[in-house]
Amino acid sequence: MPTTALYRSLKIIGSPLLTGLYHHEVMGLENLPKGPFIVASNHLAFCDSIFIPLALPRTVNFLAKSDYFTTPGLKGRAMAAFFRGVGQLPMDRSGGQKSQESLDAGARVLAEGGIIGIYPEGTRSPDGRGY
User: Fold this and answer.
1) Which residues are within 8 A (CB) of 100 and not within 5 positions of it... i.e. 6 or more apart?
2) In contact, 116 and 63? CB cutoff 8 Å
C-alpha cells in the first residue's frame, strides 16, 4: 500500500514537533528488515499509533478497528476519511469471513513489501498493564 499524501504530511510536521515536545529516543532502527514485517506492540495509549509510525522510516499500515470506518454521521465520515488517509486498514473483529477479509488485506500489504502494525491484545489497555 503506497504512502498517502496525508501520511507524509503528518510525518513531516509531526516528527520534529513531537521530538521537540517529548524528547524520545529511537534505538535499533538498523535492525529493521528491509522487506515486509509486522510491528506488534502493546497498546497503552492512543498516541501509540502516532509515535510508532513517526519512529519508523517506512509507512506503517495498522489494522484499526472497523468502528473507525463505520461510525455514522459527519463525525463518522470524517474519522473514516482520516483513517483511510493515513493508510489504516479496517479490522472487523466479529470473527469468521469478515475478520478473514481484514487479515487478508494486511497480508496483501506484507506481500507488497510493506509494514503492518498490530496490537495483539486487540484494544488499548484499560489500566496501562499488558494483558
Assistant:
1) none
2) yes
- How far is the C-alpha of 71 from the C-alpha of 26, rounded, in Å? 35
End-to-end CA distance of the chain: 30
Order of strands, sheet of 60-65, starting from the edge strand that comes earlier in the sequence: 37-40, 115-118, 60-65, 89-91
Measure the CA dihedral 68/61/2/6, to 10°: 50
Q: How confident is the model at residue 130 (pLDDT cuts 50, 70, 90)?
A: low
Q: Cα separation of 76 and 82, whole Å?
A: 10
Determine contact, residues 93/65, Cβ cutoff 8 Å.
Answer: yes
pTM of the model: 0.84
